[in-house]
Structure formats: C-alpha cells, structure tokens
Amino acid sequence: MRRVIRWFGRPKVAAALLLLALVVAALGTFFPQRPDDPATRARWEEAARARYGALVAPLERLGLFRWYTSPVLWVALALPVLATVLCTLNRWPGLWPRLLRLSAPHWGTLVAHLALPLFLVALALSGLGGHEDRTLPVGETGAALASGLALRCDAVSLERYPDGSVADYRVDVTVLEDGREVRRGTVRLNVPLRVGDVAVFLYGYTVQEGRPVVTLRAVRDPGYVPFLVGGGLFLLGLILRWVAGDGGRGAPDEV
Predict the structure, then answer these.
(1) Is the pTM of the predicted complex or chain greater than 0.85?
(2) DSSP secondary structure code for residue 164 in this structure
C-alpha cells in the first residue's frame, strides 16, 4: 500500500492527472449547460433540441448538460489534488529540515504548490454556480434570485462621444435581501457590482415607451474567493523563489 501511495505521489503522475483534469473540465465548454433559472430554461431546452435533435436525451443521461456538477468531473479534479498532497508529503521528511533553515526558495516552492489544489477547488466550485437574468425598467425591483437577493434599477445614464454615439452605460443598482438594502453601486459594461460571490453585470439595454429598460445578469461564482486566495499564494511563492531566493543561479530542489 505504501508503494502505491508513493507511486501516486510522484510528480509525473500528479502532472499527468492535472492534464487529465483540465481536459475533462474543458469538455463542459463544448456543451451548453442547463440553466437553473426557470425563466431561461424553456429557451435553453428549445435551443438544445434545435441543435442536437435526438441526441439531447443521450447527452442528458451522460450528464454533459450539467457537466460541472457531474461526479466524473469532481473525481477528475480530486485526483490531482490528492496526488499533489501525497507528492508533498512524500518529500516532507527531506524538505522539513530545509524549511527550518528559512530558505526562501524552498518556502516559495511549497507555497506555490499549495496554490494548485486551491485552483482546482475553485474550478470545481465555479461549476456549481450559475447565472440569472432580470429585465427591469428604472425604479422597479425584480423577482428574488436563487441566492435570496433581489435587484432594483435606480437610474440609467449614458455617456456619449462627440458624434453622439454611446461611449458607456451606467446603471445605478440597489441589491436587496428580504427587502433590506445590502449594497448599492453602479454597474457598467464589463464592470460588475459584487456582493459576496454574486457579480451583477449589465447584459442588455433598450427603451420601451420612452422608458429605459435594462437586463441585469447576476452571476454566482462560489470559486471566486478560492481562486483569489490561490492566485495570491502562487504570486507569493514566485516572489519568495525568484526575488527573495536565489533564482538567478538556478532553482532549488523541487518539492
């Protein structure tokens, strides 16, 4: 059993499992994922039938339309995390004395390795998220989202170029929970308003009967915070290894 654990924790095995996990995760990008929002589910089903025809049912049974919650994906993501942990533990007896000597390059290598499981966890958690759209005239509040939050469009303003074309859209949004205001801010193109793991984007704009109407898309991403933490650890590891360490004369022993 110990021999199997040591083999499973080899760096080459961990790298191969990581590549496999990325391939399995990328498979979901080839198939439209079934939305959780009932308002858009009917349109999704109609588009899926038009695109795949009789293949819709087999693809559904394979879980490809809910790939990011599929057990296959979670197992594929868990394996490289486990292999990375075992790889670190296999070398820990020899690594620990070097860490006690406060060698910055070795600390950097270890910290950078810790970022990898966090990236994979973030990827898996992001697959559990989703998005919901709310189309709102100015001054109105939409139906509650699955997260329990509700959105109110307070005002819309347009910035224009000298020739009169639109340069930017600015939408003042209030986020409510149980009728109580929890956040107020401005949503612009590609500049969302964040409330926890929910980001509110401007998805559409039109004018109906002389009244501005916007479509707001609330995207819930549970992997957002783990991804930021993993990115911070990875950056810290690079700084320790290449700046504080002795990266100029060659890399230290790998973890």
Answers:
(1) no
(2) S
